[in-house]
Every structure is written in C-alpha cells, then in structure tokens.
Amino acid sequence: MTTEAPLLRLENISKSFGAIQALRDISFEIGRGEVVALLGDNGAGKSTLVKIISGGLEPSSGKVVYDGAERHFTSPADGKAAGIETVYQDLSLCTNVDVVANFFMGREIVKKVFGVPVLQEKEMEAVVAKAMAAAGTKIPSLRTNVEHLSGGQRQAIELNRFVHWGGKLVLLDEPFAALGVEQTRRGLELIRRIADQGIGVVFITHIMSQAFQVADRMVVIRQGKVAGDVRREETSPDEIVHLITGEALGGRARTVGQENGQAQHAG
Ligand SMILES: Nc1ncnc2c1ncn2[C@@H]1O[C@H](COP(=O)(O)OP(=O)(O)OP(=O)(O)O)[C@@H](O)[C@H]1O
Ligand SMILES: [Mg+2]
Predict the structure, then answer these.
(1) Given 127, 150, 166, which residue is the final one in a domain?
(2) Boundaries of each ABC transporter domain copy (predicted)?
C-alpha cells in the first residue's frame, strides 16, 4: 500500500460519441501540487478528457479515482462539490458586480442587525484583499465591477477564489488563448503558486513554451490515446512534437492510424 494516493488517477478511460471514439484506454495520475500539461493536436481528445475529470461528461468505460475513492460525477456541480473545477478565462464571473461580490458569490457573510440580514461588506473585502495579496494578484480596486477588468485579472480572481474555497484540482483548457504576453506570464506564475499550495493543475495548451515553463509533467494525447507521459526535465520540445504528431524524430513518418486501427480490431 502506498502512503499517499495521488490526487487523481484515471484508469483505462474510454469515451465514445456514437461511432466516434474520442478516448481510448487513457490512464495517468495527477499528484497534489503537480502541474500536468495536457498536449495534443486538434481533436486529440484533450477537452473531452478534462470534461470527464470535471464531471461534465461521463466516461463510456474506465475508472476515475479522486482523493482516495472511485467517483462517478454526473455533472460539473458534482466535481465542484468535490473540489474540482474548470477555470475559464472569464466565463464564470458576473461582470456587472464587483470583485468582492464575485469572490463571495453564494457564500456571502451576512449578519442579522435588529433581525434584518446585512451583508458584511468590510469583512468580505478584507478576506478578498488577503487572498489576492497571498497570491500576488494586484487588482486596482476590489470594488471595481468585473466588466472593467482585463481577461488576465478575471482569470486571477477565479483562480484565487477557487483556492480560497478549498479547491483541490483545477482544470485549465487553453486559459491564455486570448491573453497578451504579460498577462500570460502572470497567469503562468499564478499556476505555479497555486500548485505550490498543494493543488493539482491540469493545463491544456498548444504552446510548447508555456508547457515547458510551468509543467512538472507532460501527458501527450494522440488520437484519443496516451502517446507519452514524461517528466519535464526528462524530455525536450523535439520529443513532445514527436509524441504529438507521431512522426519519428528523424523526420520519418510513422502511421499512427494503422496502430490505432489494429487496436480497434483487437477491442
Ligand atoms: N459532444 C461531442 N459529440 C461528438 N463528438 C465529439 C463531441 N465532443 C468531442 N467530440 C469529438 O471527439 C474528438 C476529441 O475532441 P476534443 O474536443 O476532446 O479535442 P481537443 O483535443 O480538445 O481538440 P482542440 O485542441 O481542437 O481543442 C474529436 O473528434 C471531436 O470531434
Ligand atoms: Mg479542446
């Protein structure tokens, strides 16, 4: 028996959409405090896999073992309740209220004054200020409506909120696609800081340099299968490209389709 189980273990996950088999027999682990970059070509199955982890999709077969127990999430709310969340760039914040309101959405501190519930604005603002400071996130004013903040600032608010409310595993599906260089740099730093607090991070990106900058491990998905699972310090961008495309390092093409064809017949 191992002393500490990984945060998440996927065992032989497969997923079909009708005749399309998007994922075949996927197995890998994510440790606490580990950043795993999920790489692969368009249509490889990355988003499908992340949705299975979050509860957005149910696998056709295979096992999701999270925090020591097998889980059968049937909705993102199930995943969220267990501390797993997908953080999008800005989709899940309410733009017409301020940072503090977003941070406390549904968890507001309310005290009864002469029997009337009163929002404890000062107290809530102090909590948010502390969380932002701990993460090194600078927002000009926590009383700014989110609509006036940049994509990167919104993302930072979401991530800090996730950490503050006890999140354990965060899933980022191309989080920096719409961000500039400086905001992306800050986002990558924030990912590292979050992982350093013991949170697991799955980070989908098409940009190799981002993966090498922040990931502890890289899992490459090719045509729905794990083509490689490598530690960052033991791989190179060349090897990752090779794993993504299936082409040999020397340039000689290997036909992945044939391999998969055989696997399909066998199954
Ligand atoms: N709801 C769905 N119904 C049918 N097919 C789907 C569905 N979702 C995904 N697929 C198919 O599953 C495969 C994997 O798609 P997925 O979105 O996971 O790829 P991806 O690796 O995230 O690609 P990208 O890098 O382009 O975002 C594709 O062939 C896609 O068309
Ligand atoms: Mg995708």
Answers:
(1) 166
(2) 8-248
Nearest CA to ligand 1 atom 1: 17
User: Within this chain, do residues 77 and 176 fall inside the same structural domain, yes or no?
Assistant: yes
Please provide the DSSP assignment of the chain as one string.
--SS--SEEEEEEEEEETTEEEEEEEEEEE-TT-EEEEE--TTSSHHHHHHHHHTSS--SEEEEEETTEEE---SHHHHHHTTEEE--SSTTS-TTSBHHHHHHTT---EEEETTEEEE-HHHHHHHHHHHHHHHT---S-TTSBGGGS-HHHHHHHHHHHHHHTT--EEEEESTTTT--HHHHHHHHHHHHHHHHTT-EEEEE-S-HHHHHHH-SEEEEEETTEEEEEEEGGG--HHHHHHHHH-B-TTS-B--HHHHHHHHHHH-
pLDDT tens track for 20-60: 999 999 999 999 999 999 999 999 999 999 999 999 999 99
The answer to whether residues 172 and 261 belong to one domain is: yes
Ligand 1 neighbours (beta carbon < 6 A): 17, 20, 22, 40, 42-48
Nearest CA to ligand 1 atom 5: 17
The domain boundary, picked from 166, 198, 214, lies at 166
Closest residue by Cα to atom 2, ligand 1, is 17
Mean pLDDT for all residues in the chain: 89
Q: Is 108 contained in some domain?
A: yes
* Domain carrying residue 160: 95-166
pLDDT for 119 beyond 50:
yes
Q: Are residues 262 and 171 in the same domain?
A: yes
Report yes or no on 2 lying in a domain: no
